[in-house]
Amino acid sequence: DLRPLAMPRSPLLLLPGLLNTRRVFAPQVEALADVADFTVPELWHHDTMAAMAEAALAMAPPTFALCGFSMGGYVAFEIFRRAPERVERIALLDTQAGPDSPETAARRRGFIEQTRIGRFHGIHPTLLSQLVHPSRVGDESITRPLLDMAGEVGGDGFVRQQQAILGRADSRPLLVDIEMPTLVIVGREDRVTPLERARQMATDIANARLEVIDDSGHMTPLEKPAEVSAALRRWLTQ
Q1: Per-residue pLDDT tens for 22-62?
Q2: SS in 3 state form for the chain?
Q3: Cβ partners under 8 Å of residue 102, min gap 6
Q4: For the segment 188-204, what is each residue's pLDDT rounded down to a tens digit?
Q5: pLDDT digits over 161-171, tens only?
């Protein structure tokens, strides 16, 4: 039998972002099914990075490739802090290593207070322009999943996530300790975690490759699914 042997699949732990469920990675799960076995924890049940990381580690196989999107990147850093020996490679999508600015932290606290008095409306249409490329604000194939995921996470889940984000550690000192193959992906027009922060992370990590996704805002897995999946495939199989 001269047929090529199928490539063994890599265990891949995918970590969703703020107001996201596992659905944020649906295009990647479909596209990479031949090279990866997926574990995707729902992180909105926990209110600290430590609890999110421990829940993800409890679900994950003994060793795995680790991919965090946005808030999931903060959880990825916490996982690496706790169990570096279990992580074979890391992908950081539209995220950052540093803490919030005082203005961003104040805005998060404001969101928490508004939600606690019953003013959680998921993703308001005005917020969509912050999350996706301007050309996609009217694209239902992208905006509908965002709105549906926010509705599933709900106000309580949103508060827990924001509390965890506010309490996270500064992960910039950790970057020099990351020596495994690392992929940093960012949308060129990402307004939430801008290109410059991704570039700095990639510079500080010894074995990092930076992939900038053109014509994309913050939500690269949904906005540019083919490009993100292709980059992840190269990272997984290199």
Answers
A1: 999 999 999 999 999 999 999 999 999 999 999 999 999 99
A2: CCCCCCCCCEEEEEECCCCCCHHHHHHHHHHCCCCEEEECCCHHHCCCHHHHHHHHHHHCCCCEEEEEECHHHHHHHHHHHHCHHHEEEEEEECCCCCCCCHHHHHHHHHHHHHHHCCCCCCCCHHHHHHHCCHHHCCCHHHHHHHHHHHHHHHHHHHHHHHHHHHCCCCCHHHHHHCCCCEEEEEECCCCCCCHHHHHHHHHHCCCEEEEEECCCCCCHHHHCHHHHHHHHHHHHHC
A3: none
A4: 999 999 999 999 999 99
A5: 999 999 999 99
Which residues of the chain register pLDDT less than 50?
A: none
